[in-house]
Amino acid sequence: MTAVWIDLLDPDAETLAHALPKPLHPTAIEHLLEPARHDDEPRPRLERQGDYLFGVLVLPVMVGEDGPIAFQELDLIATHEQVLTVRKTPSACPAIDISAIRDTAIAAGTLAGGCLYVLVDEIAERYLTLVDRFNEEIDELEDMVEDCDPAVLRSDIGRLRHDILHVRRVLTPTRDLARSVLDDRVDLPGDPELFPRDVEIRFADAYDKLLRATDGLDLSRDLLAGVRDYHQAKIANDQNEVMKRLTVVASVLLLPTFIVGLYGQNFDHMPELHWAQGYGFSWLVIVLATIGQIVFFRKKRWI
């Protein structure tokens, strides 16, 4: 029998009460009515509460092409006959629209367990897309290392690292959620089962996608660490170049300073009084020594 799929967006208590398939535990109703909080994304889970399933899903939302990552909480109640989803609008962006996948599932005569698979599979696809976006941004950062402002680059690396860690924090329990269906740890008694064999096989596909997304995030984290190390190595190399130039300046000025200081001492008999070319000779020594040092440092490619 085709399941009834009701989708609500930020419902109030009265709207939720009319849509509920059966009486729920007070804590479940409280969670369904609780508004989304940006600083406290819930942990995805799927658990049995009596004769219905209560679940919390977290969908990644990309805010624009280059914007930050936002997360939308989606709570659900599932029985054999009905699926109720409650979307909560995130503070960073508008709520996503799942009407397309809901209409497709209803048109295909999907059972309640199949509707849950459709949701989990959509989330898995979003995570795979997100990993591809991370890799593209990392490639762009790697190309920017040579020319970009170090402060801007460090800010982008820090932001991307924070996004990767945040995504992994909600991806891992989502993967465990799909695994719990495969292991028959969450199901409802009755005939037919909420998750028959064909639905479990589909959940296996969604689980594989979530595994690929997890591995992709690990690779993205390693690639980002490589970009960070490359950036730090470039900064160290730039500092070495600066130290070389400072060394050249100090070395070039050292000998002329010594000669000038020597001739500036108060002798009883100044060299210029006994040798008319003494002053010119000191300048000749200074010029030749300076030229010699410059030629030497250019051969060593310090300047």
Can you describe this structure?
The protein contains 8 helices and 5 strands. The chain has 303 residues and is of the alpha+beta class. It has 2 domains: 4-236, Beta Polymerase, domain 2 (2-Layer Sandwich), CATH 3.30.460; 239-299, Magnesium transport protein CorA, transmembrane region (Methane Monooxygenase Hydroxylase, Chain G, domain 1, Up-down Bundle), CATH 1.20.58. A hairpin with a 6-residue loop joins β3 (52-62) and β4. α4 (112-144) packs parallel to α6.
What would a concise description of this structure say?
The chain is of the alpha+beta class. It contains eight helices and five strands; from the N terminus they run βααββββαααααα. The protein has a five-stranded mixed β-sheet, with helices on both faces.
Q: Which key terms come to mind for this protein?
A:
single chain, alpha+beta, Methane Monooxygenase Hydroxylase, Chain G, domain 1, 2 domains, 5-stranded mixed β-sheet, 8 helices
Compile the SSE list and pairings.
Blueprint: E1 4-9, H1 13-19, H2 26-33, E2 45-49, E3 52-62, E4 69-78, E5 82-88, H3 99-107, H4 112-144, H5 150-182, H6 197-263, H7 271-274, H8 278-299
Parallel strand pairs: 1-5
Antiparallel strand pairs: 2-3, 3-4, 4-5
Oligomer: single chain
CATH class group of the largest domain: Alpha Beta
The value of Rg in angstroms is: 35 Å
Helix/strand-derived category reads alpha+beta
